[in-house]
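Dear U.,

For the methods section draft, I wanted the exact inputs and outputs in one place so we can describe them consistently. I've listed the two proteins in the order they'll appear in the manuscript figures. Please don't edit the token lines directly; just add comments below if something needs changing.

First protein:
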Amino acid sequence: MKSKASAHPGFMRIDQALVHAKSKLSTSQSDTIALDAELLLGFVLNKSRTYLYTWPETLLTEAQHTQYEQLLAQRLAGKPIAYLTGERAFFGLDLYVSEATLIPRPDTEILVETALEKMAIKNDQAWSFCDLGTGSGAIACALKHQQPNCDATAIDFSQAALEVAQKNAQRHQLCISFKQGDWFQPVIDQSFDLIVSNPPYIESEDPHLNQGDVRFEPETALVSGSDGLEDIRKLIFQAPMHLKANGWLILEHGYQQAKPVQALFQQAGFRHIETRQDYGHRPRITLGQM
């Protein structure tokens, strides 16, 4: 008895589709061509990457083939995989993303690890944190997932970004208070044990803005004045008014910004100032205690 798939002899098998995709993407700037092909085909079929190699003879339907070709064309034009599939993994959580949010990156997990380390000192005591410029909610969701009893607040200026963050919190059944506004404005009378942020920190004339994934990401979440420190300055000098005694401020920044960021922490009266490296051994986050 013939399978339903054999009724479409003109369409590619999974293994043929992958070979075709790798060939098509060979002229792209991506250095993960095979992975791109697998992730996009898995997305189209709603199957895992393991499935692709377990059932390589499975035929794509006409609709699946058309969708795959469209996605490959967009990837060839440079559009990030995360925006094409609408998802990205971060700190063990599958998160929704959209073009209204930055794409969560592995290096930001250093910020989450550091925040959890500092808050572990409180043991079983309830503690509070505020994630400024939450975007997709990656940092807030990761912290709340690891520490369910903490009091979580997340703020973003973009309503579209907040909608994505709220979807992520609902997806993982996390209770987080989301607020819309400019930095500390929505929590003007509140204070926290911990304030974290991955703010914009790219210089307005930085040539990297025209390269790679950042070409497609929201500029307001990337660029911060001529020196890249405009928003970081605001956060550092306003944070003391919103930190409890012995509270911590942890900020992500550019790899070349460690020294000026440390100086800003010192000027604002922080102590125990420290910069930590990302997975590529570049200075990536700076923290200080109030």
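Second protein (the one for the lower panel):
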Amino acid sequence: MSVTLEKSWRAILEPEFSKPYMSDLRNFLKAEQAQYQVFPPNKLIFNAFNHTPFHEVKAVILGQDPYHNVGQAHGLSFSVQPGIAIPPSLKNMYIELSNDIPGFKIPTHGTLTKWADQGVLLLNAVLTVRAHMAASHQKKGWEIFTDTVIKELSQRTEGIVFILWGNYAKQKTKLIDASKHLIITSAHPSPLSAHNGFFGSKPFSKTNAYLIKQGKAPIDWQL
């Protein structure tokens, strides 16, 4: 695992890379990559951080782990690489956007880089996955790393919107100081749960209203 990490994140997260859990994680990944395809490719594992520097983070959308089919994952939660079919959860996010943000037109692609470049940290709790095996890299160390990311954002900044969809993401609420930040929770946009509270939750307009109140530029959600 070669680490290319944007300088503001590196300054904060550098201590993590010398901890025992990260050494174990590196060894695990090396063994996995020797036997299987692992997504995303090494150069894209930390893509979310490289698109969204620490002090530019306005919102965090937390996913669980990367897409596990060929060509999909590129280090941004819920996003797929250009030319790849839009996954079901993202389709539902687009439906909610079209009902939540006036004038939003549903895109024909699933690449969310434009959001990341505006300050939306598209963070997965687990940053790698074995091909065709969802959740295969859970509990190997990534969660320690990404929990640290959330805690550092909570402690060192103010006025970030944390968007936590589904029970897995909602568990991260305990890492966030709600007196300094906005936490938005709802059901997950997955087809299995979107009708149980995701549709109609208006997370995107709520995010922008809060950012404006904080004196920050809102996110242009149109892709």
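Candidate sentences for the figure legend, describing the second protein: The mean pLDDT is 97. Residues 1 and 42 are 6 Å apart (CA to CA).

Thanks,
Y.
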